[in-house]
Design goal:
Two copies of one chain form a homodimer. Chain A is of the alpha/beta class. Chain A is 35% helix and 17% strand. The first copy, chain A, has two domains: 238 residues, Aspartate Aminotransferase, domain 2 (3-Layer(aba) Sandwich); 102 residues, Alpha-Beta Complex (Aspartate Aminotransferase, domain 1), CATH 3.90.1150. Chain A has nine helices and 14 strands. In chain A, the strands form four sheets. In chain A, strands 2-10-9-8-5-3-4 form a seven-stranded mixed beta sheet, with helices on both faces.
Chain lengths: 359, 359
């Protein structure tokens, strides 16, 4: 079967060799006589897998011993409330930057635990740019950002300069390039874009932020529980962690995060150059805030949309329909997306321009 | 590679054909040109998988429209607090039966949300039997049981007769036999024993129990959220749900839950008969409460343990060491365990008896 060019926003493309190795592990993990699916989370082989995944996260992101690395479940949506539940005192306040749907969902969960201060919002311009003029009160317990906005196709290209720890939802751009983790108190990311398959959530947390509030916290929602048990207080999602580890190995073997960034910039240039050149299409977001992960664009004449989707799909380019709240198109070009797939989509955009303008 | 006899308590054995089909889907899902790992949770193929998994749960357990079937994450450990968070008013009280470690953990999470009434506990006799003399006050919002106690090897063979809805943690014996769901308000089960690989949690909930309390609930912890969104409020664990669906298909094709029960009773008889016959071993639990899923036993002379483990392991019988809180041995013989594997362990017990008594 011919592989498709998979532009899905997530779950999304992973390297072909990760699929091959993960499939082999489902049959028999490294000649152990057992499938990874039937292997105890207390077994030596799984502990090795887990430890390697944590080590690779530490190595790739350059994480110091001041931060813990956890693989949890429940997605970023669970971190939306675990963060204030664990860090924010009822008398305290947290600052949030509203850059889209996922920021808004994160903000919604805070007020149950403390005061929420939305320092700026891109809502008025339809989240097509990242607000840059705002002040974060130094009394804030933390400042929450969404580093990449999957739905709108914007990305924070500079880390905000603030006096308080940054908490970042990096679900859609984690590991897309080198990161200085110093400004961060918490980094979290659902696995299902650059990390691995759906089913586990990476949480990186600065230890000095913990243990400061008195609130009673259900055991499973307390970061301390998972730190003490190496993410195995209860049965962890064994296979999603295994596949994530395989993908992190691939990332390391392919130039690490510097290599990823170079490839991502190159791919983004290919698609955005075409969006800007092609007379039929235009970009959705302001140029300076364009995401390297999710390129959003529309047809100036929306009546042509169905025709373009059909032609692109026939050529093997799938998953390009924009999120229902934005419309148009979205090409998600995560780490594992080869440049040749981006070129295949660009070829379709050019062919479509030729088709439309020659009629 | 020769397959081992995998007696792990969970994650645990699944049918070989489930491993084969799951591995094939990781390479390419049904000739789609995409791996199941890169497939959007909003795609038609995944929606079909999800709907088939829900339908199979409904069909196998005979669940009426009065109950919702959800696939969530976070394991039974998350249900320990989601149940009282969603169902128990601060003025209300819930009754709990303490039959072991997992019951105890469930009980620990309740007091934050309402009053907890432990109606009976097996703690004093080391959880080797299921308490049967107790009364559940009719003012209880619900009565919580752990239907099978993985660690100790006990199982409730009769549903308690009570006037309130039963909430059951069935993590280790769900789908092991036919079930009348009428007495139940909530049934929950981590997938990683009889259902599928680790990474998803089945939650079956009676709709009439919801919407009765005023408490503010984080969106992800509210059952109503997941009911309204068909378990896809956020990205669900796509692969664990896929593999679970494959396993449910296997269960249906192999005689459904009546077939499973017949095989499980036959297998349990093989191992318990040997435990009772063999002069070196003895069972841990009272006979009437013996689990059909986890047979616990010890060597009367504990100094022989290491030798037996080594011999059994050499013969391919792995995962037989008892939980650290009980010691001895535990043979988990879930649905997918073939009788021939149970016989292989029994053969080792007999050979060991011969080896020891002939010296």
């Amino acid at each position: 079967m011919k592989k498709l060019h998979n532009f899905s926003a997530g779950p999304s493309i992973l390297p072909q060799e990760v699929f091959e190795k993960a499939a082999a592990g489902v049959r028999d993990l490294n000649g152990s006589g057992l499938s990874i699916l039937e292997m105890s989370h207390r077994s030596a082989p799984f502990k090795e897998i887990y430890n390697e995944a944590v080590s690779l996260v530490r190595e790739l992101l350059g994480i110091s011993d001041e931060m813990e690395v956890l693989f949890l479940t429940g997605g970023a949506s669970t971190q939306f409330f675990m963060v204030p539940l664990n860090l924010l005192d009822e008398q305290g306040q947290a600052a949030y930057l509203d850059t889209g749907t996922w920021s808004t969902k994160a903000i919604k969960e805070v007020s149950q635990f403390g005061k929420v201060n939305v320092v700026a919002s891109g809502k008025e311009d339809g989240y097509t740019s990242i607000p840059k003029s705002y002040a974060v009160p130094s009394a804030s317990t933390y400042f929450h950002i969404t580093s990449n906005n999957t739905i709108y196709g914007t990305q924070l290209h500079e880390v905000p300069q603030v006096d308080v720890p940054i908490v970042a939802d990096m679900s859609s751009d984690i590991m897309s390039g080198p990161l200085n983790t110093d400004p961060y108190g918490v980094i979290y990311a659902g696995a299902q874009k650059n990390l691995g398959p759906a089913g586990t959530t990476l949480v990186i947390i600065r230890k000095s932020l913990l243990g400061k509030i008195e609130r009673q916290i259900p055991t499973m929602l307390n970061y301390q529980t998972h730190i003490e048990k190496n993410s195995a207080f209860n049965t962890p999602p064994v296979f999603p962690i295994y596949a994530t580890m395989l993908n992190l190995r691939w990332l390391k073997a392919n130039g690490g995060l510097a290599g990823a960034k170079a490839r991502n910039e190159e791919k983004a240039k290919v698609i955005y150059d075409e969006i800007d050149r092609n007379t039929l299409f235009e970009g959705v977001t302001v140029a300076e805030d364009r995401s390297l992960m999710n390129a959003t664009f529309v047809l100036k004449d929306p009546s042509l949309e169905a025709d373009f989707v059909e032609r692109a799909t026939s050529a093997g380019c799938v998953g390009i329909k924009g999120h229902r709240s934005v419309g148009g198109f979205r090409a998600s070009i995560y780490n594992a997306m080869p440049k040749s797939s981006v070129q295949a989509l660009v070829d379709q955009m050019q062919a479509f321009e030729h088709h439309v303008t020659s009629h």
